[in-house]
Amino acid sequence: MAQSAKDDSTYDRLILAGVKLFSQYGYDATSTRMIAQEAGVNLSAISFHFSAKEHLLNACLEFIADKTAKYYSDISTKIKTLLERDNITKDEAYSCLLEIVNAQITVAFGLQYRSSLNLIYWEQINCMGGYHPVTTTLFEKIEKSMAMLIIAVTDIPYEKALIASRFINGSIISFGEHSHLVQYALGNDENPNQELRPWIRLEIVHYCDAVIRDLLKI
Q: How many C-beta atoms surround the C-beta of residue 175 within 10 A?
């Protein structure tokens, strides 16, 4: 990537434009001209800051990975602190696991996270050259941490704990990714961009809670 100051306004505008357009249209359908126009800068600015569209995409993924790490920072630190103890209780693990569930639901359905989330979904199935910083961040901060928390208070082996973590997080992500299906099924597809209804959130938490309680035997 071409050297540039991270706080440069043109650099920042290109990143934000890239996140928006890559998440909306994908990599192939998004041209550098589209990004430059969205950012309100000259086309040459992309070459100057990133040298190529692929490098701009990588910078966008790194930007989202950094935002993801910051979003989950508090809960990740809390899990790390619990895991460093030898006497963590099931109630403490249970409370922390539900905190993760609620954080995930907020992201999956929050309109302010839509562009970032779409880019995360895109990265999941379009990994370019083995480069997937957002997926790596999500795994380390949430899915692996959740699995380790489960292991700490149960006799479940690591591999099964990872499957359980993926099941819980994957179900939430699936709801967020395919929210239009839920809207349609509920007869409310006229306004697909509305916030998640409180009772739907409660239902998702209820079923995740059932899985967690079963895992922890509480």
A: 20
Please report, to the nearest 10 degrees, the dihedral formed by the alpha carbons of residues 107, 109, 115, 116 taken in order. Answer: 20
Residue 56 phi/psi, 5° resolution?
Answer: -65, -45
Indicate the DSSP class of residue 155.
-
C-alpha torsion 160→161→164→166, nearest 10 = -100
Q: Which residues contact 146 (CB under 8 A, 6 or more apart)?
A: 79, 97, 100, 165, 168, 169
Reduced to 3 states (helix: H, G, I; strand: E, B; else coil), residue 113 is helix
Contact 120, 134 (CB under 8 A): yes
- State in words which class domain 72-216 has: mainly alpha
State pLDDT tens for residues 33-52: 999 999 999 999 999 999 99
Structure tokens at 215: 């895992």
Q: How do the domains of the chain map onto residue ranges?
A: 9-61, 72-216
- Kindly list the distances between the CA atom of residue 81 and the CA atoms of 70, 77, 88, in Å, as whole numbers in the listed order: 17, 6, 10
**Of 5, 83, 10, 87, nearest to 41 (Cα)?**
10
Q: Does domain 9-61 have CATH number 3.20.20.70?
A: no
pLDDT digits (tens, 9 = 90+) for 130-144: 778 988 898 888 999
